[in-house]
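ok so I'm stuck.
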Amino acid sequence: MKEYSSKNIRNVALASHSSSGKTILTEAFLHLTGATTRMGKIEEGNTVSDFEQEEIRRSISLYSTVIPIEYKDVKINFIDTPGYTDFVGEMISALSVADGAVIMVDAVSGLEVGTELAWNYCDKFNLPRFLVINKMDRENADYKKAFDSVQNYSDTRLIAVQLPWGEKTSFAGVIDLLSMKAFKGAGKTAEEIPADLKAAAEEAHTALVEAAAEGDDTLLEKYLESGELTAEEIARGLAAVVKSGAFVPVFVAAGGSEIGVAPLLDAVVQLMPSPLERKPVVAQGKAGEETLAAEDSGPLAIYVWKTTADPFVGRQTFFRIYSGSLTADNRLWNTVKETEERVGGLFVPRGKETLPITVLHSGDIGIVPKLSVTATGNTLCDKAHPLTLPIPEYPHSLFQVAILPKTQADSTKISPTLTRLCEEDMTLSWHQEPSTSQTILQGMGDQHIDVVIRRAESKLQVGFSTELPRVPYRETITKKAQAMHRHKKQSGGSGQFGEVWLRVEPIADDFEFVNAVFGGAIGNNYMPAIEKGIRNVMKEGILAGFTVSGVKVEVYDGKEHPVDSKPIAFEMAGREAFKLAVKDAGPVLMEPIMTVKVIVPEENMGDILGDMNSRRARVQGMETEKGHSTVSAKVPLAEMLRYTTDLRSLTGGRGIFDMEVDHYEVVPAHVAQTVIDARQKEMASKKEE
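replied:
not stuck anymore, here's the structure
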């Protein structure tokens, strides 16, 4: 691949709902520019973009893929992103390093949830964007309906740059409003606009010229005076309004038939900003914030936006250069890991291919193999000039599963494997839940977790199975009580003796231990043993094997033996006395209560409220704005374990939610008994094993 300077680079993310045609459009780009000899097909599993085994098996994109296109001396780094909402992290990573986006809409379906999501993240990253109404050759395709569905959703005005030449099976090509020429089929050759479309084209052209004139004061003055602009002036003005985000240009295409592909590439070259035209990024340096323009002469600042691991090729690190330039055999400083990394080879990714290159300039995207510690979200720079680039904000992962190893050999690999997977995927996390002794893996949904588990098995050779996580209930007491226990054991030689009298009472803190013994009934040297025995019982639980908290323990009396008393005896006595006291202190089960915020389309509000009531929720408030309703509620965690899937079903995938632990509350008696019975049954079966 040729070397491209910053001004001849375009970084463009393809984002939308699943199955809107992003992957096939990249195939059309590759075929049109001669990078491939034939277009791949998703059903045949031979596309350049979707090359992973799981992607081929499921026939959907699961990972972001870089597809560089060389067109008219410009290199366009298209990043094909997944449209399924479980893999939103891949889309966020791609958008964070892009300078513009192409949002795809299916001409039959119109605006869908994945498209809404992509649109919102483009707003968040202030990305200029194109709207492409794709699959215009499908039965039931409706350009106007698809156009209006997006315009009704967006606050930004859409402006047609192309009109369809026919629809459905009669879709013949596109009418380009910039040149006022028609492009038939997959051809690059312009021809005159058909007579029956001339009037509509002229009307749309006038609206386009008016929009372009708003991009430049000089152009606006000229337009107001003469009422006309040249094609070059229209393009310049349109580029300005696109880059400012004032308008979103609309294109039409049928990627599978390669219709509209060439004009779209022309528009990307003309209207999309180069890295030089984007707002400089702000990095954290030694002396504070530094503003970095996309210049080769600037300090080296490289952001790692994606990493992958493969048993054959090893670790692959995808990056974007925000400042400076990079050559092979460089040494780079990882500011996050505070480690030096050596760049052995430098490559440009194209699907699963890696094309060697000698130098990459500021603003470009590349790949480096076999870096030792660098993970997604890290910054690479010169050691003499350390910089840290900002990491985009990712949504909370709310879908949880408990991870179990398939074999004994797998059990030793759980921790390093999960850590490695989470380093690759910013929406993935894991932790050990101390109260349930489970390893918890969190992702964006059931499909996301399933793909991760399969990836661990195929790429890292570690087998996992999953089960429903247990709710981290707690046990506590509701009143004061006291008890005593004497531990006495005689076995021929030296015996064991310890007697402990103690009181318990509920407190707001987790645990408090008080030595209230006077007169030397129990020596101070035995108090740590008593506390140890009590803490061990608190870990094991008394009602149902859950951690005990919110208890104050006061040891006020006891007895010791001059010969037989030992720490182990007082540990056992403290243990048993605590158990007896807790049983008399009104023990109850506590459950985590979550603060939940659900955002859904307005028409789904009633369904959400009804569903919340069935989950023992206490609704705190409701708001409606711009066709979306927000419900705030306090809900027990036990009722929210599979809410990700349930919400998707209730809203057709258009609902989102967030939740965090708020506090613990006493479990209602009827629910508590069910939990206790199930837990005791589980513990009994484990003992039998």
